[in-house]
Amino acid sequence: MRPDTPAENVDHTAEAARLERTAGLYPEDAEALLLQAAAHLELAGDRPAASALYDRLLSSQAALENPHLVRALKASNLWEYGHEAEARAIIDGIRASAPRDPAPWVIVAEALESHDELEAAQETFTQGVRLLLTGVTEPPYSTHPLLFGRHRVRRMLGAPHDEWDTLADTAHLAHVTPTSVVSLDELHDPKRVWSLGSDNPAELEAEISRLRAELGAYREALSRPFPVAILRWPANELAELVEAYPTLAAEYPSHEAHLSTIEASLRELAASGTPNLGIVTGTVPSYEAFAASEGATPGDASLLPQYATTLAARGRAVEWPPQRGTACWCGSDRHYEDCHGTD
Questions:
Q1: Distance separating alpha carbons of residues 47 and 44, to the nearest angstrom
Q2: Is-above-0.70 flag for pTM?
Q3: Residues of the domain holding 256
Q4: N or C end of the chain: smaller count of CB under 10 Å?
Q5: Can you give the pLDDT at residue 181?
Q6: How many other β-carbons are positioned within 10 Å of the β-carbon of residue 127?
Q7: Residue 128: inside a domain, yes or no?
Q8: Is residue 250 part of a domain?
Q9: Which residues pair with 327 in a beta bridge?
């Protein structure tokens, strides 16, 4: 999660330096850690240093998990300190490459929106929505910002509702309580945004109070820093783990049982109403390093949930359930609905 704490409450430069040092200790998590460091540098006002971190990631010999996300963040940052032409070129490249992750689409579209490029922002949001949600009746949680952003920009442009706006309205209702339902049309009303520019202190105070009340229902969902994550071990890693630490054999009687338990646990959590579920993949060296940092033995089974939470906090979680037509989370070559997603 990218930080958003005001600069007066955090020494963002120091925090960025700490994250860079941590990335050196945990190279397998360097991508997520350096992205957070770059965000702190942006908040500190040192945008050139943030761009240097993005360039460092993009020029790394190690394969990035999400190079499109890194490029999108770099483009957004560049535009904010006067490098518009380079930012536009990167945005065009991202649109041409058509990433399957919604985050890069949202970032570049919002960059265009923030610079009053509303038509281009709408086109970008729409391109991402069509690519990721065509034929999808229930949009994944991660795609909601894409739908909401498109709805907001179209509202600013005065465009009539279409099927994607209706889908955004439906997704929006999942975030609000029955007693505080505010439609996206009202939430995205340009007049309400413009009213914040009033010179009348009473009007400003009234509008701010109104916005706080209406957006209060979002806080719980948006404040979650990482998904509720379940730990997954690839077959070779699990075999190595149990051989090295036999006390964990009771937790993992077999790899097949391990995978079945993951799916069953996630379905149970989903049925109970738990949102934002994910899966993190463990490795023995990473787990051993984590145990050492905690001053504990890797054979302690109580350490496993903490390890999963730490991986998720570092941005290692993969959303569950996978989108229809995509590979199963277990690592097989089959689609999720033909593998662990079978009813």
A1: 8
A2: no
A3: 228-338
A4: C
A5: 56
A6: 15
A7: no
A8: yes
A9: 335
Number of domains in the chain: 1
Whether 44 is in a domain gets the answer no
- Kindly state the percentage of the chain with pLDDT values over 90: 44
Could you write out the three-class secondary structure of the chain? Answer: CCCCCCHHHCCHHHHHHHHHHHHHHCHHHHHHHHHHHHHHHHHCCCHHHHHHHHHHHHCCCCCCCCHHHHHHHHHHHHHHCCCHHHHHHHHHHHHHHCCCCHHHHHHHHHHHHHCCCHHHHHHHHHHHHHHHHCCCCCCCHHHHHHHHHHHHHHHHHCCCCCHHHHHHHHHHHCCCCHHHCCCHHHHCCHHHHHHCCCCCHHHHHHHHHHHHHHHHHHHHHHHCCCCEEEEECCHHHHHHHHHHCHHHHHCCCCHHHHHHHHHHHHHHHHHCCCCCEEEEECCHHHHHHHHHHHCCCCCCCCHHHHHHHHHHHCCCCEECCCCCCCECCCCCCCEHHHCCCCC
The reported pLDDT for the residue numbered 72 is 96
pLDDT in tens, 256-279: 999 999 999 999 988 888 888 899
Query: What pLDDT does 319 receive?
Result: 86
As beta bridge partners, residue 279 has 230, 318
**Residue 217 has what pLDDT?**
43
Give the Cα separation of 158 and 122 in Å (integer): 12
Domain membership flag for residue 165:
no
| pLDDT tens digits for range 311-339 | 887 777 888 888 878 889 998 888 888 89
Write the CA distances from 75 to 22, 61, 93, 97, 321, integer angstroms: 25, 21, 10, 15, 30
State the helix-helix crossing angle for 30-43 and 47-58, rounded to 10 degrees: 160
3-state secondary structure 257-283: HHHHHHHHHHHHHHHCCCCCEEEEECC
